Amino acid sequence: MTWFRFLVILTITIVLHSLLDNFAPRALARLDLYVILIVYFAMDGQLTRVIVAGVIAGLTQDAFAGTIFGLHAFALTLTGYLVALLNTKIVLRGAIAFGPCLAGAVLVNEIVILFLIRLLLSQRIGPVQAGVPYTIVVTSAVGVLAYQILESVSASRSEQS
Questions:
Q1: What is the model's pTM?
Q2: To bridge 79 with a disulfide, which of 56, 109, 114, 129 should be the other Cys (CB 3.0-4.6 Å)?
């Protein structure tokens, strides 16, 4: 994926994030659009590109979500790096591989964020967030749908060329 395509999808993600924040704020608790973006970008397996993309997407998410600045940047960078590293060892292609990879990435992202909140804020975190399984399911379902749409657009563009 090119940087231009990444920036276009990041812009779409920001718009969707803003719309969901205004009309359905509870949906953002169960849907992490930025993880979908980073996993899609990491499926190419290029480690340095996904690190930069994770920082950009994470800082954007922090700016729009109003959380600790750098929290999501670190979590998305680590998550994207692990997905890209896995993709260099095992070639993952298609929606069948994207779905489980995205589900695992959402789980890793949530664990890293909970750990960082515990570490940085010294807040006691109650029982493991009951919403994490819902976040995994919703984000994975929306992510696979988005993957299918992006791949069909990509395929139709290559047919036209």
A1: 0.89
A2: 109
72's CB contacts (< 8 A; 6+ apart) are 34, 57, 58, 59, 61, 62, 65, 113
Cα-based torsion angle of the residue sequence 10, 90, 85, 96 in order, rounded to the nearest 10 degrees: 30
CA pair distance 95, 31, nearest whole angstrom: 18
Residue 75: Cβ within 10 Å count: 27
Dihedral sign for Cα atoms in the order 118, 124, 126, 130:
negative
Kindly state the helix (H) or strand (E) to which residue 138 belongs, with its residue range: helix 132-160
Q: Give me the amino acid identity at 78.
A: L
- Give the SS3 label for residue 68: coil
pLDDT tens digits for range 75-128 = 999 999 999 999 888 877 777 888 899 999 999 999 999 888 888 887 776 665
Question: What pLDDT, in 10s, does the model give residues 74-90?
Answer: 999 999 999 999 988 88
